[in-house]
Design a protein that fits this description.
It is a single chain. The chain is an alpha+beta fold. Helices cover 32% and strands 23% of the residues. A hairpin with a 4-residue loop joins strand 1 and strand 2. The longest helix is centred in the middle third of the chain and has 22 residues. The protein is globular and about 70 Å long. The chain starts with a helix and ends in an 11-residue tail after the last strand.
């Protein structure tokens, strides 16, 4: 398997030569982190085998949220937390997409525009739920920001998982929809467009291109929600491409595979510098939260969710028990290694064990 750290080491100079004027501090930080991920020179933990008195040092992962190696455990934890909030209603996946004419504005003001996209989408859903004749109350949503399409090009959009149920807090009444229809997408798109316009005006950002009149919003039922949570959870805490999909690196050309919207595999070829640049397009600003919960699904509404689950007799999936750590064995004598230090900085000068 071709490691991303190897490609960064090989093509980072080409990337900086071609796209250096466009790179942000967050891009340089991501490259530094992923280049040393689980390699010599990174932080490491120290283990000792007492029978043969062998000391082993294992390099740590970088922990960067754009790294394909890291944070798989965080993804599973997120799925379990959100699964614990499931309600007995139909869930919908609502996708809000920024038009192509706004992408340059998004790129120039990433933190503010990403934040506006998420908030405008939630305000649109919330306003429709409060006016809907069947719901008339407070709804909830899990919002996840994505910045790429299938070809890893820059394509800001947001997915929201929305349960078709709401609480009227004044009356203490629960209402839900029983069909496969949430809100009219044409009206959603119009309100979303208006809220984005108001937000851009308030931020005093200038948009050079003429924006289209019709924006794109998709809304489709996704069953009881668990599968949609699993689908989104896979893409929350890792990079935009898995290393197993990087097929070859030959004569400066990276060959990798993707899947189109129909699930068919497509093979793409890019130069090393352009391949790295496509990955850098999706490095988020520092401390920006790409995953947010709103309304009934916010952490502050935990008691309301628990009360609803009790009244509605919700049977939640049994939580996955924590995985027992597999003992690490000494490569020389087969004895069990004991942990001496969790994290130690500095070069690795004695035997190195790769995971």
């Amino acid at each position: 398997m071709i490691l991303l750290s190897q490609l960064i080491e090989r093509y980072q100079k080409d990337l900086e030569r071609i796209h250096g004027h466009e790179m942000l501090p967050s891009h340089h930080q991501a490259l530094r982190a992923m280049r040393r991920c689980r390699r010599e020179g990174s932080d490491h933990m120290v283990l000792e085998c007492k029978p043969c008195e062998t000391t082993i040092r294992i390099p740590h992962s970088c922990g960067h949220r754009s790294c394909p190696h890291c944070q798989h455990h965080d993804s599973q934890q997120w799925i379990q937390r959100q699964t614990a909030k499931l309600l007995p209603v139909t869930y919908f996946m609502v996708t809000f997409t920024a038009p192509a004419q706004l992408r340059s504005t998004f790129w120039q003001h990433q933190k503010q525009m990403y934040d506006l996209l998420i908030k405008a989408g939630w305000q649109t859903i919330d306003s429709f739920a409060r006016r809907d004749p069947k719901l008339k109350g407070r709804i909830g949503a899990h919002a996840v920001l994505h910045t790429h399409n299938r070809e890893l090009e820059y394509h800001p959009h947001m997915h929201m998982i929305v349960p078709a149920g709401a609480v009227d807090e004044k009356r203490g009444q629960w209402s839900c929809k029983t069909d496969d229809y949430l809100f009219p997408v044409v009206n959603l798109a119009k309100v979303f467009r208006a809220k984005m316009f108001d937000g851009i005006k308030a931020l005093d950002f200038k948009v050079k291109d003429t924006l289209p009149e019709h924006w794109v919003v998709h809304c489709k039922p996704v069953g009881r929600g668990e599968q949609a949570l699993i689908y989104l959870g896979r893409y929350l805490y890792r990079g935009v491409i898995s290393e197993k999909n990087i097929l070859s690196d030959c004569n400066g050309i990276i060959t990798f595979r993707i899947k189109n919207n129909e699930g068919q595999e497509i093979i793409l070829n890019l130069s090393g510098a352009e391949f790295l640049w496509r990955l850098m397009l999706h490095v988020l600003p520092k401390r920006f939260r790409r995953v947010r919960d709103f309304g009934l699904l916010h952490a502050n509404a935990k008691r309301i969710i628990q009360l609803l689950q009790l009244v509605l007799c919700v049977r939640l999936p049994w939580p996955t028990p924590p995985r027992e750590p597999t003992p690490m064995l000494c490569p020389r004598c087969g004895g069990i290694l004991q942990l001496l230090r969790v994290r130690q900085r500095g070069p690795i000068l004695i035997p190195l064990l790769r995971l």
